[in-house]
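#data-curation
PF: Archiving a pair of folding outputs for the training set. Convention for this channel: one message per protein, sequence first, structure tokens after, nothing in between. First:
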Amino acid sequence: MIRENNDIIPIITELNIEETPPCSIKKYWLRLITDGLGNPVCIPVIVARGKQLEPVVGITAAVHGNELNGIPVIQRLFNDMSKEDLDNLRGTVVGIPVVNVPSFIHRKRRFVDGVDLNHIMPGKADGNISMVYAHRFVSKVIGNFNYLLDLHTASNGRVNSYYVRADLSEPMTAKLAELQNAQIVVNNPPSDGTLRGAADELGIPAITLEVGNPNTFQKKLIRSGVDGIHNVLSYLNMIDEPQTESMYATIICEGSNWIYTDRGGLLTIHVDLMDILEEGQHIATIRNVFGDKIKEYFAPRKGVVIGKSISPVNQSGGRILHLGHLD
């Protein structure tokens, strides 16, 4: 047990949501691994259970330790639940504010062994330290869900629009994406190694929400994230609240790709997030340290700017921008 603000939060080794009493919210520390001193490494879990157990909607954040916007999304979702809300809740909501606890503590993106956790899901029971961590998280947590909303942000040195990655060929994941009222939805079948892909392999409809930028809290995007989750709960008939409608039209992209530099230098990008680009449009310039222009870059096709680099110092193979494909 851990006492926090007069609350006693139990340490558990397995997540059994049936142990959370109906019409209540409970917090847990779920033990996943032990560190080099043999001390437990635990992840925070919040469970809000209504009168009935299912459906179970899981919301995860900070799979990368520097992706913070999803944390207050989950906090606000649960903090806003009144006793009346819990009495009327049909199903269960599970929030994991921080998945990658070791990296979160060290304010790093990757796991402590330098591996990207979102490239190795569902991990291995007998793998290295990141593999074991990923495996235990998927087996102990994700298997409890009927639906998964995985919250991310851009990486270091980049900024993102508020966008969703989802397999639009699957009706339920397409609907989950639509309900987010995001600026952009990108058709993206689950990639091997992602948490979304691991959920898909378990038959769990899942989407990835890219909620802005790393290492910061962005109030407007946090509010949008909460609204999107409320829309999902409303659509699934878990709550009685009406769905929030978007004030703008969501742009649907058939796919996307990053555009990279082929030489190093000081990078200037001439377009902004959400700009619609035409094929051949000038998007970036590379100059050397003396200020001489050495290369210009142009849009290879029509598209929308989903994300872009904000670091002027750019080596060969550096990212310029993330282009959503438009017909």
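PF: Second:
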Amino acid sequence: MDLSYWITGMTTIIVGILGSTGFWMFVQNRREKKSVERTVMLGIAFLGVKMSCRMCLERGYADVEEIEDIEKYLYEPYIAMGGNGTAKMLMDKVKNLPNKPRKEENS
């Protein structure tokens, strides 16, 4: 058996897999699952931004670490995934609040 026999056989198998309906249904299902997962992640990130920002706005101030955490762990990933301007509007309002240092936990 020479190399061309193996190449022909492997090519036939690959073409058969790529040409099958089952393969493309599998690919489509994976794509849809990722889309649903992405939507859920966007929703969780948005709710985190919204709840965190509302807490600061109701309190009337935000500490620097709090703003940095909201931005780094919620807002920036939300925007990177395609989030809308509502989160930006909330972040802008929080950034304009007076800043107060965090209280020491042992105080």
